[in-house]
Amino acid sequence: MFAPEGPTVRELAVQALSSVEHGYDLLAPKFDRTPFRTPRSVLAPVTRALRGMGPFERGLDLCCGTGAGFGVLAQVCRERPVGVDISAGMLTAGRTAHRSGADLVRGDALALPFGPAFDLVVSFGAFGHFLPRQRPALFAQVHSVLRPGGRFAFPVPAPARPGSRGYWAMLAFDGAMRVRNALWRPPFVMYYRGFRLGDVRSELARAGFDVELRALPELGERSDGSPRCRLLVATKAGPPR
After folding, report:
1. Per its UniProt record, what InterPro entries does this chain match (predicted)?
2. Which domain holds residue 45?
């Protein structure tokens, strides 16, 4: 599951008993050698889909971590990518990896330090760190930093079928996290099963977005012919700048 240079079991245990911010500070030097980093097999189809909607001027990677999404923004945006994350450690690792290819800013996704300066916001794998009650505020923040006509895009995997191995794995993980957070402080928020597409679409609409889904055929189909993964594209009302 992990490369030989990746974190040890002890290091992962220490991270899991920390806050989200401090946990990622600890994991940052080895994060890119874990399966938690968004793989190229996902980034490439997202890039293709966004390229067909662009080009965009300025793009933001929300909760950027070490910058896996910067390659996507570099290909579909005319200006340098911008990334924002709450973990100073992850940003340090991102600056080392990307040198002068991106601008990295430390900030809270629930209080973004930008005005309406972006035409595209992307995010990869970060939504499990937000409780359902926090999502309306998160989406309102994204809406506030987009220019009219700007887009908020992120991949949405199809939910695991009840009874499948993936279903039981996510159920067990979320259950373990709830027990951990009931017994230990500070909490570490990371839940897989709370990000339900119907709820998310409604919340985005209430935040002022028009929402559509686009299949990512490179990631395959399920047995019923439906896509294994879609790109959700939320567009801020108003003509593009």
Report:
1. Methyltransf_25, Methyltransf_Superfamily, SAM-dependent_MTases_sf
2. 39-159+196-236
